[in-house]
Amino acid sequence: MSINITLKLISIKYGCTICHALGIPGKKCGTIIFTAEELSNCRDIATMQFCANKLDKKDFFGKSDPFLVFYRSNEDGTFTICHKTEVIKNNLNPVWQSFTIPVRALCNGDYDRTVKVDVYDWDRDGSHDFIGEFTTSYRELSRGQSQFNVYEVKYKHSKNNNKKIKETKKLNSLDQQIIKMTQLNFTVAIDFTASNGNPSQPTSLHYMSPYQMNAYAMALKAVGEIVQDYDSDKLFPAYGFGAKLPPDGKISHAFPLNSNTEDPNCVGIEGVLEAYFQSLRTVQLYGPTNFAPVINQVARCAAEVTDGSQYFVLLMITDGVISDMAQTKEAVVNASSLPMSIIIVGVGPAEFDAMEELDGDEVRVSSRGRFAERDIVQFVPFRDYIDRSGNQVLSMARLAKDVLAEIPDQLLSFMKTRGIEPRPPLPATSDSPSMSTTTTATTTPAPKQRNTHA
């Protein structure tokens, strides 16, 4: 697709807008808009740094992943993007890296021209959530010498983001109600079958490298560190399955990682990781890969509290095909009537086609002619979320965001089937989200840099 337009036409139309429809025969593809404005001879360069405090929480599990978008105002009243910051993961009080921008790009050399800043919560699919906005000017940014400029981030309703706003308000409301009335109980189960490889070898999925986390530790930390914020006592039952235990070599499919059969709880996610690594040093990886025992273990606990005050989330991390598929389906069908969800993370290069049967997004799981009352299983292969540059933090953030996406709906579906009404949401606080900046301005011909704190 191409458009022929001359600079002469644009210059003749200075101060106006030229619109051209894009498309191919029989199909509309949008509109391209040209505007012309005389550039100033301003050669100033600004270096700025922004931080924020108490931003709105847009993600049900975890916090927001905020970034800033800067807009230059045009003479016709429209705005043009001139800069985007990096995304700060899982942080409501972010500090973005400083950046340098020509003042001409920011405001065309007009120090009093409006500069608009939008704050967004990053989403992997590109449907970023609008958090709020504020306006300023370059003169205001560069005015202060000894203090920060502070801006209130305001949420503005507009036709363009009407749909997104409605979705976000709905999520926030449910978030508050569920947090107030429901205690999450988080349980971990880790695959200790021999197909993972010898933990002492670098090729093993359980390899304990002194330099980086293995796939099991990454998956556990990514999901666990978010869920633990919703678990008040921070005590997590943690189990292993598919290993021979000392001293008699008995095979177990639900052994406590901390070796305490009376109390399998670990303190915090760090406690779970410590127990996991200790188990790798003491048990023998074996098999088969049986899921049903640990699912039934958690289901028995969930069956004791069905009034909506507690909800159980089981994270299972595995490298291979389930050996007891029939028993696992039956366990899932039985658990579907309980306040319980199951997250399965597949690690390693194996094919996980059979796992999709348990993830009832398309076809509800069935066993012996009985269908699951509701979808309670979310399965994801970790390899789909690994960052190509090797950034483990980014890989973990991607995994956590997607793997926890279905939990709110699964929790609510249980409440609806039982007629459990959420309590009123928490009252709004008077604290407003704010944005602080520091600005350094320089003029290119001058050898010295003028430091200002906006």
Automatic annotation (TrEMBL):
Gene3D superfamilies: C2 domain (2.60.40.150). One of its GO terms (biological process) is cellular response to calcium ion. It comes from the Eukaryota. Residues 428-447 have a biased composition (Low complexity). SUPFAM superfamilies: C2 domain (Calcium/lipid-binding domain, CaLB), vWA-like. Residues 28-151 form the C2 domain. The keyword Calcium applies. The keyword Coiled coil does not apply. Residues 417-454 are annotated as: Disordered. Residues 185-386 form the VWFA domain. GO terms for molecular function: calcium-dependent phospholipid binding; metal ion binding. One of its GO terms (cellular component) is plasma membrane. SMART domains: C2, VWA. Keywords: Calcium, Metal-binding, Repeat. Belongs to the copine family. This is C2 domain-containing protein.
